[in-house]
Design a protein that fits this description.
The complex is a heterodimer of chains A (524) and B (306). By secondary structure, chain A is of the alpha/beta class. Chain A folds into two domains: 240 residues, P-loop containing nucleotide triphosphate hydrolases (Rossmann fold), CATH 3.40.50; 181 residues, 3-Layer(aba) Sandwich (Rossmann fold), CATH 3.40.50.300. In chain A, 34% of the residues lie in helices and 23% in strands. In chain A, strands 13, 16, 19, 20, 21, 22 and 23 form a seven-stranded mixed beta sheet that branches. In chain A, strands 6-7-8-3-9-10 form a six-stranded mixed beta sheet, sandwiched between helices. A four-stranded antiparallel beta sheet of chain A has the order 2-1-4-5, covered by helices on one side. In chain A, strand 7, helix 7 and strand 8 form a beta-alpha-beta unit. In chain A, helix 4 packs parallel to helix 6 and helix 15 packs parallel to helix 16. Chain A is globular and about 70 Å long. Chain B is mainly alpha-helical and 306 residues long. Chain B is built from 13 helices and two strands, in the order ααααβαβαααααααα. In chain B, strands 1-2 form a two-stranded antiparallel sheet. The radius of gyration of chain B is 19 Å and the shape is globular. In chain B, 46% of the residues are buried. The chains are: A alpha/beta (524), B mainly alpha (306). The interface between A and B is medium-sized, with 27 and 25 residues.
Chain lengths: 524, 306
């Protein structure tokens, strides 16, 4: 890496051929990495590339199998997160390591050295949170806070230890574009103070915007070190996935087909104090269309999915229609029998039973809609294993699902591969209507591209597709129409071509109410 | 001594073992471990305390032996569930059955032997207060300990740093581990505190409540203590209140019989469990209350991924 050798400054952190083996599988294979003082360094890679394993070793959560870590030019053994914090490494995890039952101040106090009173912690936390533009109430219980606020706790917690290096694991995956902008300002402040940031992401645009240098990982190995600003998104992506990512072939909107999925003034009261109520949601999806519902998590997406899929039927049957039939009061199986397919958000436990093999998961989802081919013995409903296995193989082949063995447990697949299987399970039926919630959440670029292409192909073959997504890249890639959900209200539906990221961002931040003020009556 | 004072005294004697055993289990559960072996640890404490008192002639040494015996017995549970990661529910039930068996063996020579009662400790001045004096300040050491323990555990859990760490482990052991908190070590200590408390509660039964050894003399109090933890929604002062409520209910069985009141005693002995179910329904109805009070990793095994 000549770029590194050319710079005179000695690196803050240097990693020399660091390796982590899980059994015979090398999650990290002879990784070299250098982070200089006062730089924002990106760690790029697909899911499963070894990014998380690498930073877990840097933070003392995992022990390396071999290799060396140099901190301020001295070899160190980071045996625990406590050691990492002591030498000056702070970390903000992707899945927050917060305690919901405790208050903000208690959460922060836990990571501080003993001997500091809770009152002092609260004071110091408020001071720091203001200084870095991260407003927080130290007395609030974490259970009551939004995801963005929880991330702020993590950042403040890391900052309280005055670290020289802060590791951020996929920090923007849970933020609105505006919240992300604020985070970038905070990072710029940290950089100006001479601190270094190791920024893990698979969002190329962000990396190009804020990072000084980047190290790219693939299959546990470093495949490149570069200045991201001197690269193009395509060249960065190539380093990440090894080959050019197939650009998704978008749907060409021809004449509009029949309305296959429709809601008319769909209102659903909140089921719990933490849920969002849906307010007069009106939408139509025509044959051949992909409607994307954009929005920040927790604004009614899961409630909308539940109402559309029939996981929680709604009181007024007429408010949801599939292929012209009112289905509001029907359950999931009845809706599936009408030709609809549904892919819920959580792979583990909702879309699939992790401990069961793929074939059993297939039967669980399609035992009603494919009764004839999967079940035999009349009322006895005996599973026809041969037929099921054949269908399972077909799905794996079509969606390029990489798995170990013929029919492994769903939980043993990587996130991307399981997601491909789950989406493929529905696509295999050629549903007339498909509703997908967060189709590529936490999925690597290759798998995401495969899934998106499959959705586009389905729409092209004349089905109506509704995609609920937080990923604007994804929305612009696949959707023909976009609507934004905010606090349970749905905006008007706009053709994708008339929208910009900024406009969607504003709508996501809660520019609803327009529909209600009467300026624009329902456009449809 | 008036009638009411006499009734209050019996309520206190009945409530004290419930409060102590329940408090120990509360600490164990706050660290995320569900030990269903309270009944077994309690009856072990009762047998060991009685035997030690008979051998040495000192009920105080008996008390200490009861505490130590309960803690040692819980160590077996800790080793099985924390080190060998055995299922906590099954292990806890096994511990109860084992405890009932072993305690019978230990106590066998002492069946029918009259015991030595733990002496009263009269607090000067305070014990002369009319009504309250004789009820609260002419008590045995275990009663004073029970009140001190409630205050101490409450302070420990909500004011001390170690207590905060323990609650953090109970809420999310993976995150606690990532913060460098010793999950397994803390849980061992919490389990042993629970065992020591159950042992102390058992010792109270055989040294204060009925100073003699009878097989299975814990008579289901360990299960009531378990129910009490949930009833108190994992809060120490509520354990005290609930313990006295349940103690009063169990005593009222006797008084009801004495006065010929027509309430079936089975109904009264079922009351603590019924009350616990009602409380469970009430708190699980409100997700926020559940999130903030229930140890979220309760009963889940922890294996560090190293």
């Amino acid at each position: 890496m000549s770029a590194v050798a050319a710079s005179g400054a000695s690196p803050l952190l240097a990693v020399r051929s660091l390796t982590k083996l899980f059994g015979s599988f090398a999650a990290c294979n002879a990784i070299d990495l250098e982070v200089r003082p006062g730089e924002i360094h990106a760690l790029l890679g697909e899911n499963g590339a070894g990014k998380s394993t690498l930073v877990k070793m840097l933070f003392g959560v995992l022990a390396p199998t071999s290799g060396q870590i140099l901190w301020k030019s001295r070899p160190v053994v980071i045996s625990s997160p406590g050691v990492a914090r002591r030498i000056g490494i702070g970390m903000v995890f992707q899945h927050f390591s917060l305690f919901e039952a405790l208050t903000v101040a208690e959460n922060i106090a836990l990571s501080l050295p003993p001997g500091i009173s809770l009152g002092k912690v609260a004071e110091e936390a408020s001071r720091l949170s203001e200084l870095y533009g991260l407003p927080l109430d130290p007395k609030a219980h974490v259970a009551d806070l939004s995801v963005g606020e929880r991330q702020r706790i993590e950042i403040v917690r890391a900052l309280l230890q005055n670290p020289d290096l802060i590791i951020l694991d996929e920090p923007t995956s849970v933020l609105t574009p505006q919240e992300a902008d604020r985070l970038f300002e905070t990072l710029a402040k940290l950089k100006a103070e001479g601190r270094s940031v190791l920024y893990i992401s698979h969002r190329l645009e962000e990396v190009q915007r804020i990072c000084d240098r980047a190290t790219v990982l693939r299959h546990g190995k470093v495949t490149g070190a570069c200045d991201p600003r001197a690269e193009t998104p395509a060249s960065l992506a190539r380093m990440m996935v090894g080959s050019d990512v197939a650009a998704v072939n978008a749907v060409q909107v021809a004449a509009k087909g029949d309305v296959l999925l429709e809601t008319r003034n769909l209102s659903v009261p909140a089921r719990s104090p933490f849920a969002v109520s849906l307010k007069n949601v009106c939408l139509e999806v025509h044959a051949g269309e992909i409607l994307a519902i954009a929005g920040v998590a927790g604004n009614g997406q899961s409630e909308l999915f539940d109402a559309l899929s029939g996981e929680f039927p709604v009181a007024d049957a007429g408010t949801v229609s599939i292929r012209g039939r009112p289905v509001g009061a029907l359950g999931i199986s009845a809706r599936r029998l009408l030709g609809a397919g549904f892919v819920p958000e959580e792979r583990h436990g909702h879309a699939a039973v992790p401990s069961l093999p793929l074939s059993d998961n297939l039967v669980l989802a399609r035992n009603q809609s494919d009764r004839r081919s999967f079940l035999g013995g009349g009322v006895l409903g005996i599973i026809r294993h041969a037929a099921v296995r054949l269908a399972s193989q077909r799905i794996s082949q079509t969606m390029d699902v990489r798995k170990s063995g013929e029919d492994p447990a769903a939980g043993s697949l990587s996130g991307g591969n399981l997601q491909k299987y789950i989406v493929g399970r529905e696509l295999d039926r050629q549903p007339a209507v498909l509703v997908v919630n967060q189709p590529t959440w936490g999925v690597d670029a290759g798998a995401a591209s495969r899934i998106r292409q499959a959705l586009v192909d389905l729409a092209r073959s004349g089905s109506a597709v509704l995609v609920i997504s937080q990923d604007l890249d994804e929305i612009f890639e696949v959707a023909t129409e976009v609507a934004v959900i905010s606090e349970g209200r749905l905006s008007e539906i706009h053709p994708t071509t008339t929208l910009t990221r900024e406009k969607i961002g504003l709508l996501m931040g809660g520019m609803h109410g327009r529909n209600e003020s009467g300026e624009a009556a329902h456009a449809h | 001594m008036g009638m009411i004072e006499a009734i209050l005294l019996t309520v206190i004697t009945a409530a004290t073992p419930l409060v102590i055993a329940s408090l120990g289990e509360l600490v164990t559960e706050r660290s995320g471990v569900l030990n269903l072996g309270v009944e077994g640890m309690m009856v072990m404490g009762a047998a060991i305390a009685f035997a030690m008192t008979q051998v040495t002639g000192s009920p105080y040494l008996g008390l200490l032996a009861g505490i130590g015996g309960g803690a040692l017995f819980s160590l077996l549970f800790g080793f099985l569930t924390l080190t060998l990661v055995a299922n906590q529910v099954a292990t806890g039930l096994a511990l109860t059955i084992l405890g009932l068996g072993i305690s019978g063996q230990i106590g066998e020579p002492y069946v029918g032997v009259s015991g030595i009662k733990l002496p009263q400790i009269v607090v000067p001045v305070l014990s002369d207060i009319p009504f309250f004096g004789p009820v609260l300040f002419r008590q045995d050491l275990v009663f004073y300990l029970s009140i001190t323990l409630v205050a101490g555990v409450s302070w420990f859990l909500f004011r001390s740093r170690t207590g905060l760490k323990m609650r953090a482990i109970g809420d999310n052991h993976a995150s606690a581990h990532a913060l460098g908190i010793h999950v397994i070590r803390t849980r061992y200590l919490a389990v042993m505190f629970g065992g020591a408390c159950a042992g102390l509660a058992g010792a109270q039964l055989s040294l204060v409540y009925t100073p003699q050894w009878v097989e299975n003399m814990s008579a289901g109090r360990g299960w009531i203590a378990l129910a009490l933890v949930v009833f108190a929604s994992w809060r120490p002062w509520r354990v005290l209140a609930g313990g006295y409520l349940f103690g009063a209910v169990s005593i009222s069985q006797l008084h009801a019989q004495a006065f010929g009141v027509g309430i079936p005693s089975q109904f009264l002995s079922a009351l603590p469990y019924a009350a616990t179910i009602v409380v469970l329904i009430l708190i699980s109805h409100n997700r926020r209350v559940t999130l903030i009070n229930t140890p979220a990793s309760l009963g889940k095994p922890f294996v560090p991924d190293r």
